[in-house]
Each structure stands twice: as structure tokens, then as C-alpha cells.
Amino acid sequence: MQIRRKIKFILHRRHAGQTTGLGIRMRVTMRAQSPIDFPTGITIDESDWDESKGYAIASCLHASSTNATIDEWRSIMNDVFARFELIEKRMPTSDEIKDAFNTAIGRKTETPVIKDAPTDFYKVFDKFIADVGVQNNWTSATTTKFKTLKKQFKKVHPKMTFAELDDAALVKMMKYFSDSGMRNTTIAKQLSFIRWFIRWSHHHGYYTGMIHETFHPKFKGSDNASKEIIYLTLSELQHMETFKFRPDEIALEHVRDVFVFCCYTGLRYSDAAKLRRSDIKSGCIHVVTQKTTDSLVIELNSHARAILDKYEPFHFPGDLALPVISNQKMNEHLKTIGQLCEFDDVIRIVYYIGNVRHEDELPKWELLTTHCARRTFVVTALQLGIAADVIMKWTGHATYKSMKPYIAIVDELKARSMEKFDTI
Question: What is the distance in angstroms between the CA of the first residue and the CA of the last residue of the chain?
Fold first, then answer.
């Protein structure tokens, strides 16, 4: 996940016309949220400040130490965001950013004290699910996921209190997840959800400890470095696109068309599922993504346009543009389609459970999911020579870091192609 933000350093004036002794503040802005200001405690004269760069000018008496602090604060703030991007994998609130940064620099954060606040750990967990679910517009599946997590926590710690919440309690949860056969990547995600609840509890005055900031265990293989990216090659995509289904396989044909549409537009399943005809204007898709709430404009190529034209005569509920079924059912049908298309190349999947490395070798068709379409779009676009920054405007990826795995795939494909000259 990538969090769109802007970090800049500005001067704070206590009154209009003030030009000396101005406080330097770090201003952090996240999309759709009010800016957050962090006073650095450093003052400077306006004449010693480069507003365009957000630094003290070189001739300033204390330029070196001032600019070093600015660089350090920017780095710490980026580390805070990286934790939410890579570990929590979610959009933080402004208060969570404040708390995390202030903790990182050793600045005390005032935790609100709620009068008559409930102290029962699991009642607070219920309140977290209810309040945050409404605030973040959770789907029923997300709500169910957190309710299940609460049940798992209660199974391991039937009488947990906030006073008893410590490293040992969370290590015990890790062992429970591991003994259940969860992969390390899944355990890391489950712990990030638990930390979210604890951080929320801390901010709302139910919990006064800091374990949500200090407990960050390492898991082998949880950094996704060894994660295999499943996508269709250009020839596989073309084969699927032109595959002829029997008349009694109309459901498979619909799934194929939606999947191929996503391969040619980069849309996630969640966005294709709610795509309305009214979202298509002047040859472009206008969509606010469900996952990241990014506003995207995606130009239609001939392949995507042909699929939309195919379903133009049909009427779907809610003026939907495509015959989209549930994600679960679509994933099941995709595996059947993959078998029919004979996508039998063996893919090696590497994962860890605890410290034990596991390898599974599976045919590609068995690994097909709706998200493979988005990956196929990115890899295909890079192979066609389309610039990464252009692709990112279509997909909503915020940083080049998220594109690196795809670029590595294309570089490897290029190297393999060059090897063909050795056979001449």
C-alpha cells in the first residue's frame, strides 16, 4: 500500500508582519485530511529561510544544525508512514501519525482521559470494531475478519485486561497463529490488526502503555521479497481473450470478459464490480477507487472498449457496465478457465511458517485470481515500453517502490530474450 502525503517545512508567524524569530514547523498533509503541524522548537529569521526549498539558507549562522534537524524529522516521518504502508497496510488517522511521530522523537503525547471509560478489554474491542467500521466504511467481510480476530484473542487470553497486555501476551498470540498453520505473512498482518486496535485504545484513553509502538517482531519471508507475482504473459492473455466457450459455459465467458477487461485497464476487482456505465465518459473510465479512494482517469484501449460494447445491449442491476459476480465465485471460475486454456506452467511458491521454509510447485491455472489481472496490466504495459510514471497514473500506485517488482520481471524477460541470440 502507498499513502499519498506531502511533508514540508514552513515558518509560523504569531502575528501579521512578523519577520524575525519565526518558528519552523513540519507540516504533514494526507489526502482528504486536514494538515498536521509539528513545531520543531527552532526559530529563524525570514531573511535566513529559503521558502521554496524548506531549508535555512547556507549563509545562516545555524544553517547546518537547522537543516540536519529538518532532514532527520523528514526521515523519521517517512519511517512512520512506511510502517503503516508495509506493516499495517492501511491508511492511518491524523492522531495516529501524531502519536507515532511524537513517540519516535521522544516527545510526550497527551493521551485523552475518558470519564467512565469501559475497562473490559473485549468490550473495548467491540467498540473499536463498531466505531472504526463506520468511520472507515468497512465491508461486511472486513468486519467479520476483526470479529474473528477478537474471538481468536479471547481463545488465547480468556480474561485479558489492558494492564496484562505485554510482549508475552502478543508472543502467545504469535504462537497460536503459527500452531494454526498460518504463514508468516499472514501472522504479520494479523499482528498489525491487533496493533491497530491497541493504538486506537491508547488514543482513546483505554490503554496507557506503548506496546503498539515497541512490539515489532521479525518474520522470515514476511517482507514479500520472495513473493511470486502471478500474471499472464502476452500470449496467454491473447489466448484467453480469444478462447471459444461452449454455449453452456456462458458464466465462464462472463468471468473471462471481466478478467480480460481488468487486464487491459488495470482496475481492481472491487472497482470493476461497481463500474457503472455513467462512469465511462469521452472514451475514459472515471473512477474513485474503493481501496485507496484515489480518483483515476483511465483511457480505454480497443480491447477494453470491445468488451464494454459487447455488453452494451444488456441491462445489469444498478446500471453496472459488466456482468460481475462475487470475488470468491470469480476466482473459482478463473481456475477452471485457466485449465481450459492449458495454463500449465509450473510456478514455485516459497513461504515460511515460523522458521521453516516451504516450497509448493503448482500449475499457473491453480494460482489465478482476480488480482492477477491488475498485475498482468502492469507487466504488459512495461513490456510495451510505457513509462512507469504513466502506468502509475492509471493504476494509482503512489511510489516507484511499488513498481519495482514488476520492473524486475520485465528486466528478467529482456535478459531471457537476449539469450536467444546465443542460439544463432
Answer: 44
